[in-house]
Amino acid sequence: MALAENGAAQLVALSRKWFPGRAVDAEAMAEALWLERDHWEKMAVAVCNGIAKAFNG
User: Fold this and answer.
1) What is the b/e burial string over 31-57, where b = at least 16 CB atoms within 10 angstroms of the residue's CB?
2) What is the pTM assigned to this prediction?
3) Coil, strand or helix: which one is 28?
């Protein structure tokens, strides 16, 4: 099964991305998911602000 189709594998991968030296457990996976979502939410805001600044000066 591909990583894109396996939610548990995705959580393990995110946990290893955000916490490379930490044991993978339910708490680490939950925190990694929160960090990933927060990162992309902030990235979307930054892109929108950049576009607004480019068009409005």
Assistant:
1) bbeeebeeeeeeeeeeeeeeeeeeeee
2) 0.83
3) helix
